[in-house]
């Protein structure tokens, strides 16, 4: 079934009003509910996903069958049957269609320079050379940010070519995120708000609206590549944007994209990949979680498999630390040649 015709979707973030208390852990404003795509009506409040992916991880999909057996919520409605949940509240309210918020093109284009002070670009040039990095910059929307000296911006551009968001990250000279005195990762909109405030400038209308209701990570990273690759070329999905870029250099048999987070492996974000072969490359230690998600995605019509190559390469300590492909590539370990065989499509 085409993903665009999915009857039930998770709500896009539209400020605190679009999140409720999780029925499992009770955390306020952490629960994303499902709604009917055609009408905007919410499903019963038990159906949704807790945003606290690691600490809670509760997710009740309308496509999931009850543990005691019987049809799923979706199957019951399709057959015209009544489906009861622990908290049957019916359809309470209709959500208005949410127009995607975007970042102006001039803001995006202004960041595509000053790579001489971009720590990630300088590291890549040193390790892989100017030609390889030029190809990466042509494939991946990567900018330079002044939020922290040396920081980069991973721009998130959707399949319509709209700039939907961006993640700001500062890397050290080993290619790892700077974590002292705090973790140096943020998003473009708070960085822009701070810059305007620092200069004593009023926030433009678009930034005020985006800061209130903009989605942090609404799409996969690296989607513009799909416009230049054949449909027959398989897509590889990883969690980190940096990993997608580095893996492109070593495993060019794939189109590498990034989910930008452990919880972002969803049908909505994977919609542009419908009709393509997709291979997931979870970080070490996350294989079981991604494999479980892949099972649900296959039921929705995706051609998707999960590689266990990294799981085989990693030691127990590395699994605990969440080793990813970027770690292997950057350290140029002898295991890289073995990884090439493990990761072949």
Structural class: alpha/beta
> What are the low-pLDDT stretches, counting only 5+ consecutive residues below 50?
1-5, 82-97, 333-341
As an assembly, this protein is single chain
Number of helices: 13
Q: Which key phrases capture this entry?
A:
345 residues, alpha/beta, 4-stranded antiparallel beta sheet, disordered N terminus
Describe the structure.
There is one protein chain. This protein has helices at 73-78, 105-110, 119-128, 130-139, 188-198, 205-213, 241-250, 267-270, 287-299, 309-313, 316-321, 325-331, 335-342, and strands at 8-10, 31-36, 48-50, 59-60, 142-145, 151-157, 163-169, 185-187, 235-238, 255-258, 277-280, 303-306. Helix 3 crosses helix 4, helix 5 (188-198) packs across helix 6 and helix 7 crosses helix 12. It is 30% helix and 15% strand. The protein is globular and about 60 Å long. The model is unreliable at 1-5, 82-97 and 333-341 (pLDDT under 50). It has 13 helices and twelve strands. A hairpin with a 5-residue loop joins strand 5 (142-145) and strand 6 (151-157). The chain is of the alpha/beta class and 345 residues long. It has a four-stranded antiparallel beta sheet, with no helix packed on it. The chain has a four-stranded antiparallel beta sheet with strand order 5-6-7-8.
Provide a quick synopsis of the model.
By secondary structure, the chain is of the alpha/beta class.
Annotate the secondary structure layout.
Layout: E1 8-10, E2 31-36, E3 48-50, E4 59-60, H1 73-78, H2 105-110, H3 119-128, H4 130-139, E5 142-145, E6 151-157, E7 163-169, E8 185-187, H5 188-198, H6 205-213, E9 235-238, H7 241-250, E10 255-258, H8 267-270, E11 277-280, H9 287-299, E12 303-306, H10 309-313, H11 316-321, H12 325-331, H13 335-342
Parallel strand pairs: 9-10, 9-11, 11-12
Antiparallel strand pairs: 1-2, 2-3, 3-4, 5-6, 6-7, 7-8
Helix pairs in contact: 3-4, 5-6, 7-12
